[in-house]
From TrEMBL:
GO terms for cellular component: plasma membrane. This is ABC transporter permease. The keyword Membrane applies. Keywords: Cell membrane, Membrane, Transmembrane, Transmembrane helix.
């Protein structure tokens, strides 16, 4: 008696799942094609280098924000912490007379400490991350003005080098790629990275399973402060000076880049590659609108609509997963 076997059913390509996982990348490709058609200056070598330099600060800032959002929090202080870190570095060089490399390290430490304070206020002080980091935004911006007396301070050569070139490649792009690799390794290949997902997915379940939730939150905000400091030093290196109002509003770009890249504001979901694509989307939009001679006022309107659309997609995605 012969038996017949039914051929395995072949499943078709799941477009919905593909778009849900790669929507930002698809949007970036469509955006680039549209701008290439609209203006011949978009895909020139010089303009692509400009995009790489411009995205470096936003992306590095957003990498730190990714840790916080994955862990279920939010950090409104990263722009102010970036400015403070650059200002501390320049003051240590000009005002305190420290060597340039020590001044650079001091700027990074300043960002790290600001992040630790945010984490302690959130984890042990029981302040919501929104309130804790909103307070730090004001404190950091105020300290930046106090240190600088409202005036720019020249950066040491070691910081200015970050805004220069490494051979034919702009140094900000090199720093961006290194920061992306480090951030991706931390999030995907370490215990603390896996713990961020667990805390963001369900903090109480993470606590009951034995994870040190409070220490994890402090570490998450400390990393966000460290990456914010690096972004601030990159920006100061490009400007060859620490500016008291530098990185104003950059926290919104960082949050937008993370959400556009597929992270969920409710926590437990996000990846560094998605954040990088999200930052590219924001910068490419601004770059394209500049090439098309669209005023900065309308650019703000467009960016706001993109952020609203990204958050709306996140809400729909959460509803789909819960249904």
């Amino acid at each position: 008696m012969s038996t017949t076997t039914q051929p395995a059913t072949r499943r078709g390509f799941d477009y919905k799942k593909f778009l849900a996982n790669n929507g930002a990348l698809v949007g970036l490709v469509v955006l680039c094609i549209a701008l290439f058609i609209a203006t011949p200056d978009f895909l020139t070598g010089q303009n692509l280098l400009n995009i790489g330099i411009q995205v470096s600060t936003v992306a590095v800032l957003a990498f730190g924000m990714t840790f916080v959002i994955v862990a279920g929090g939010i950090d409104l202080s990263v722009g102010a912490v970036a400015a403070l870190s650059a200002m501390v570095s320049s003051w240590l060089f000009v005002g305190a007379g420290l060597p340039g490399w020590l001044a650079l390290a001091g700027g990074l430490v300043a960002g790290l400490l600001a992040g630790v304070v945010n984490g302690l206020a959130n984890a042990y002080g029981k302040l919501p991350s929104f309130i804790a980091t909103l307070a730090m935004l004001s404190v950091a911006r105020g300290l930046t003005l106090v240190i600088s007396d409202g005036r720019p301070i020249k950066t040491p050569a070691e910081v200015s080098f970050l805004g220069g070139n490494l051979g034919p490649v702009p140094m900000p792009i090199v720093v961006l790629l290194v920061a992306a690799l480090v951030a991706s390794f931390l999030l995907n290949r370490t215990v603390i990275g896996r713990s961020m997902y667990a805390v963001g997915g369900n903090a109480e379940a993470a606590r009951l399973s034995g994870l040190p939730v409070k220490r994890i939150l402090v570490t998450v905000f400390a990393l966000a402060g460290l990456f914010a400091a690096l972004a601030g030093l990159l920006l100061a290196g490009r400007l060859d000076s620490a500016q008291p109002q530098a990185a104003a509003g950059y926290e919104l770009d960082a949050i937008a880049a993370v959400v556009i890249g597929g992270a969920s504001l409710s926590g437990g979901l996000g990846k560094i590659s998605g954040t990088f694509v999200g930052a590219l989307v924001l910068v490419v939009i601004r770059n394209g609108l500049n090439l098309l001679n669209v005023t900065s006022f309308w650019q703000q309107v467009v960016i706001g609509l993109v952020i609203a659309l990204a958050v709306g997609v996140d809400v729909l995605r959460r509803k789909t997963r819960s249904s």
